[in-house]
């Protein structure tokens, strides 16, 4: 066994902590039965015996990343679980790790290549014609017979015959695939959307690519001039690149293509847009797993880097700021996932840390789970699982919401074991929570208030909040970061965060009539309070009072954030 894989297995085994203190005290053994070899696409069944009431089951790829994770009940001393191995998974030796704490058992899972079916001679070619071999390494995705795009009531899928890919494997084993689209088919797709009447909403032009292997990158090239022309008839068109396990949906309206051309110093006709999807290799997976472990979480592996670049005139620019447009990308995992204890994460290579990113999980009919990750920029994304609670929230009215957001790494405790739910929350603390909820990049330079220093822990968050128009200061140029935030101040920030997420909510003055103290709500806060009430994000301190000037508590902040994240469809 190579040293890197051995380290991955040790880390993965160490990450199997006790599910509960009582469970840890009763574990005496776990035995995993031998697992037959299978081909990609086959069903893996993991069974065995244990004296515990439940065990953690993990399956680790040869690269060291986790392909499967689940907590399985032990019934009458036996356990069993299964999942379908993806058709794009590599051959090799996978490790199955089962148990809790220091009591684990491991077995090898051998994945072998499926046998190649025999080739049947179809007989002589009725029309030999000239050689149409596209050359070494170049593969049309579809058949050789011409066809048209696939039109459905919801979108247009570009014909496989229009898609050509070229794959190169580098000396480091990295697989790079470049994909180009026949311009006529792409142009036709816009026309077909228009002919279908799909000029409103977010009509999709879908482009299917081959599955991407670990440590592999696929780049789809699109001419900017053609996209710009298509947007004249379908301005809200979305380009969706998808494989069996990943997808990226780019609303073209987030791109100012003419300005991009000016930045590159070239006419729009010379600009090529590249949409890139890269599945991470062992090196990045280990760093993500280490960061997750430091936060009491476990990475499920299958981390993906999504990026968009524009190229022309010998220059390349990265397109990574989409304002209030939260672009969707998805990663499909082979197992069922519990949305309450699982979250999408962003990995920052600069500090090698992970953080929350808005993610919604959907269980597919085949037992797999699709994680749809939403953010107004690009990065490396993955999914982690975690279950967090605090000793001082037992029986508290906000316990479930606090645990949910703590498990998703949105809120944290005042200590490792305490949350202090009834303590006041400051203006800086709440601004930081909103910035985290929106997955915004920190920007200390934008925090120009006289009482916020660049060295303050909250400077980056307040700067990000200023850029996103979530906060404003006082007339004297201060922000008062350490002052307790009032309920009406918190509500104003929440209303602005709804706009920052690209969502809208109506304001109806009569919605405030339910509060007998509505006259005490400041004029500058009334619209925001009305919007938040309409959205179901905030309610009164009692059925009839809002108490706008009362200081908000940490528990109230957590509950409002949970409702906000659900209203914006940032979590399930």
Automatic annotation (TrEMBL):
Keyword Signal (UniProt): yes
Residue segments, region Disordered: 113-152
InterPro entries tied to this protein: Cell_Envelope_Struct_Comp, SLH_dom
Domain of life, source organism: Bacteria
Biased amino acid composition, Pro residues: 115-133
Residues spanning the signal sequence: 1-23
Residue ranges, compositional bias (Low complexity): 134-148
Family annotation (PANTHER family): OUTER MEMBRANE PROTEIN ALPHA-RELATED, S-LAYER PROTEIN _ PEPTIDOGLYCAN ENDO-BETA-N-ACETYLGLUCOSAMINIDASE
Name assigned to this protein: SLH domain-containing protein
Lineage: Bacteria, Bacillati, Bacillota, Bacilli, Bacillales
């Amino acid at each position: 066994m190579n040293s890197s894989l051995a380290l991955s297995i040790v880390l993965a085994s160490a990450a199997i902590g006790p599910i509960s203190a009582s469970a840890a005290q009763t574990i005496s053994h776990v035995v995993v039965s031998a697992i037959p070899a299978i081909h990609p696409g086959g069903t893996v069944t993991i069974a065995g015996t244990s004296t515990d009431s439940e065990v953690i089951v993990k399956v680790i790829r040869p690269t060291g990343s986790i392909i499967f994770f689940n907590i399985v009940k032990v019934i009458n001393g036996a356990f069993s679980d299964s999942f379908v191995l993806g058709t794009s998974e590599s051959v090799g030796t996978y490790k199955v790790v089962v148990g809790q704490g220091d009591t684990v058992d491991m077995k090898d899972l051998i994945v072998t290549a499926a046998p190649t079916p025999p080739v049947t001679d179809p007989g002589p070619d009725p029309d030999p014609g000239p050689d149409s071999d596209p050359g070494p390494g170049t593969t049309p995705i579809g058949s050789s017979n011409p066809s048209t795009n696939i039109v459905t009531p919801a979108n247009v899928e570009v014909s496989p015959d229009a898609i050509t890919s070229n794959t190169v494997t580098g000396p480091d084993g990295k697989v790079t695939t470049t994909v180009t689209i026949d311009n006529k088919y792409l142009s036709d797709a816009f026309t077909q959307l228009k002919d279908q009447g799909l000029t409103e909403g977010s009509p999709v032009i879908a482009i299917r690519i081959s599955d991407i292997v670990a440590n592999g990158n696929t780049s789809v090239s699109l001419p900017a001039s053609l996209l710009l022309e298509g947007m004249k008839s379908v301005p809200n068109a979305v380009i969706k690149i998808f494989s069996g396990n990943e997808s990226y949906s780019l609303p073209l309206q987030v791109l100012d293509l003419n300005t991009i051309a000016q930045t590159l110093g070239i006419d729009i006709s010379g600009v090529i847009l590249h949409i890139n999807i890269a599945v991470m290799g062992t090196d990045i997976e280990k760093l993500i797993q280490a960061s997750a472990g430091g936060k009491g979480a476990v990475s499920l592996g299958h981390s993906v880097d999504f990026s968009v670049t524009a190229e022309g005139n010998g220059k390349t620019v990265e397109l990574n700021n989409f304002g209030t447009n939260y672009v969707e990308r998805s990663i499909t995992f082979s197992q069922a996932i519990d949305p309450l204890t699982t979250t999408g994460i962003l990995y920052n290579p600069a500090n090698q840390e992970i953080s929350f990113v808005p993610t919604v999980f959907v269980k597919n009919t085949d037992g797999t789970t699709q994680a749809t990750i939403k953010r107004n920029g690009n990065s490396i994304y993955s999914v982690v699982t975690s279950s967090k609670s605090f000793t001082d929230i037992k029986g508290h009215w906000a316990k479930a919401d606090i645990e949910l957001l703590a498990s998703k790494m949105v809120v944290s405790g005042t200590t490792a074991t305490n949350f202090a739910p009834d303590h006041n929350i400051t203006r800086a603390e709440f601004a930081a929570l909103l910035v985290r909820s929106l997955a915004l990049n920190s920007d200390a330079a934008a925090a120009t208030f006289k009482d916020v220093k660049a060295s303050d822990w909250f400077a980056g968050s307040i700067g990000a909040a200023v850029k996103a128009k979530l906060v404003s200061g006082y007339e004297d140029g201060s922000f008062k970061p350490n002052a307790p935030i009032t309920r009406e101040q918190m509500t104003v920030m929440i209303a602005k965060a709804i706009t920052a997420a690209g969502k809208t909510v109506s304001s109806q003055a009569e919605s405030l009539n339910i509060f007998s103290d509505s006259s005490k709500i400041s004029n500058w806060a009334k619209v925001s309070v009305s919007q938040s009430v309409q959205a179901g994000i905030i309610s009164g301190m009692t059925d009839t009072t809002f108490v706008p000037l009362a200081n908000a508590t940490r528990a109230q902040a957590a509950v409002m954030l949970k409702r906000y994240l659900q209203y914006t469809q940032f979590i399930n």
